[in-house]
Amino acid sequence: MATATPQRRYSAPCPGCGAPVEFRAAQSTHAVCGYCQSTVVRQGEVLSRLGKMGELFDDHSPLQLLTTGRLENRSFTLIGRLQFKTDEGSWTEWNALFDDGQAGWLAEDNGAYVFAFALANQRELPAAERFVVGAKTTINGKPYTVASNVRAMLISAQGELPKLPELGQPFTVVELRGDSEVLSLDYGSQPPSVSKGVAVLLEGLQLQGLKADSAKDEKGRQFNCPHCGASVTVALDTSKSISCGSCNSLIDLSAGIGAELKSAIQDEPINPLIALGSVGTLQGVPWQVVGFQHRMGVEPGDDEHFGWSEYLLYHQKRGFCFLVDSEEGWSLVRPTTGAPTLASSSAKTATYRGTTYQLKYSYNAETNYVCGEFYWVVHRDQKTFNRDFVNGKRLLSLEQSDSELVWSSGDQIGSDTVASAFGLKDKLDLFKRGDASPFSAAPSIGVGAIIVLVLVLLMVSVLLSRCSQCDPRVENCSATGTRSSGGSFGGYSGGGGHK
Fold first, then answer.
1. Domain map of the chain by residue range?
2. What is the DSSP letter of 128?
3. Assuming Cys at both sites, which of 78, 127, 193, 214 could form a disulfide with 186, CB separation 3.0 to 4.6 Å?
4. pLDDT digits over 441-468, tens only?
């Protein structure tokens, strides 16, 4: 017999297997049986079985059902989750029930977290196709930038849920970003639902009941390279791209292991300065290198190409960030939740969290070599239009493609800091970039200094000629060439925002 508790909890046998299915929230209409994966809908005190839910993919999240925490002095419990995917990646949304009865969503994208709540829209929303990436719009009187417009689908669910989109049925999700928040417009329902979220850190949520061991299986998943047949191991279950360690082919995993794998041959690989798998502590956080890509840039109307490298770093609770190696120095950046404000007239400045940044470079970027694992589908020849902004050692980068616009922010860091962090101080000379100053200002210049200066100018001339002709498949142009313009403060090329 179904029973109800004073806390408005409701429990009844699963129509599929008879195991108890519990509803903790009054607004929950659906649940997924933890025993047989049946999708159950509640109508009053009657449960009906709709079918079987697809199995969850293991995203190695430290979160799990019944994890508790606090947000702004209010307690919550995670009672369900939805898993979605797009062509570029996947994300998870946890259904959070607060003690006062309010429901929220803790959206999780490869370790980055946003807490979102339903927002009542004051006017009818336009059709999804009206939201053009990069355009400005206003919702409830507040300005936003259209950050992405993608097609997504539900691939799995667990626990108790107030909504349940049809499994495998594509729908459009539009993301709008303001100064410090993100709006998600979900066109899977009519009228579209709107939620407003802000970035949070797991450390700040006072979480209890996390998984005792959410580390990934050391053996990982394995399959044979579709190009050379060598064994390839996937360590992160959420990876959408990986390179073969034997033939360097870049393999698309977006269809899943066991499905048809697409591969692209990459000849003459670049050897990263920092080996994949290395762990280094930067800004107090131990990061593991899981991916590497080399990218090339060119300013519009110019034929001078320049290159830089990006290391994808992973931490279980902090998610992913990027260690960027350019000729001007090293920087540590990660995508922002909010969108900086571009100057409306000239776009020569951008303001973020009260700080104004000056435009330094604008250029077209292209990925030309990849190795390791990535949480989005990465491929050679991926193209974006980038803008780099600076304020002292603080950096902002804007990357724009046809389907999304992504801001990243971070800081320049010293070459010696990077080398020390990864235990490579014996190779410090290889890490020296624009932050190294071999000469200091002096009141006068002697003959010896003039000779040195002439030699340096000759070397620079040779390097400039060399970089303009270098093949990035063979060498890392960011470490050998110089240029008069063109930045590389970014560290992101695809994959979406928190979704």
1. 3-52, 68-205, 268-421
2. G
3. 193
4. 333 334 343 333 333 333 334 333 333 3
